[in-house]
Amino acid sequence: MPNPFLARETGFIRLCGHRGHNMTAPENTFAAFRAAHELGATSIEIDTVLTADRQIIVLHDLLVDRTSNGSGAAREMTAAEIAALDAGSWFDPRFAGEKIPTLAETIALAHELDLVLEVEIKEKVNLDAYYEALEAVVANPADRDRVMMISFDHASLKAVKARIPGLRTGGIAHERYSDPVAVARMSDLDELCIDLDVFDPADAAALHDAGIAIRCHAYKPSAWEEARRAGLGWDENLAAWLKGGLIDTLSGDDIGWLKNFVDSALK
After folding, report:
1. Which GO MF term does the entry hold, naming one (predicted)?
2. Which whole-number Å values give the CA distances from 36 to 6, 220, 239, in the listed order?
3. Which residues are catalytic?
4. Which domains does the chain have, with CATH numbers?
5. Alpha carbon distance 31, 28 (integer Å)
6. Average pLDDT, the chain
7. Rounded distance, CA 166 to CA 95, Å?
8. Burial 5-18 (b: 16+ CB within 10 A, else e)
């Protein structure tokens, strides 16, 4: 079976919605995931934490305050209590009643929409319980094959991969490494998630030679306007890297904008 996170095996570059399409829908909700898919996303990046009853939910923060009508730490609330919250009205009244989904529910939606998931581990308090819960959620190989677990904490990725055979992991990189292949191999990573601002084509080629996938995060269109004014050359560079096959997944906040860029670059 081809690796769904490597463009040379799938034949296409994935477009990944950062927390779904968070420009037009509340982040990390089904509304944002469906919006991303409708705009052409084939992947979504989500964030996950653990509840009091050891269920993994899709939430960026450790607290529910910012993205729901609730208050308090997710770890002190049950999954049922969290499911009862309104996670949409804070963004726009049109999304009233939108829920904070579980990871299991999101994987089911990924099957429905034929998406793959980049699942960031945001849990900070009880990683052992998180790993145990994750093992149950991805027990089905068909579910596990759609998932790339990602984190800034590469040591935690190595630990979870040792516990769950066949699980893919991706390390997030906001800075350049002197030897990215060594970094990836040291933590047994399948992917490096590299910010556009620190993307290096020579490093990308070396990672691909080692069989390691690459997700490049390309921010919001407003960040591009600032980069253009600063003369950073992102437009020309990213187009060349896409044409050169150096990127497997391109992620960002505005999927429509990213799709137009990729379509133009690959003409």
Report:
1. glycerophosphodiester phosphodiesterase activity
2. 20, 14, 22
3. 18, 60
4. 7-265 (3.20.20.190)
5. 8
6. 96
7. 37
8. bbbeeeeebbbbbb
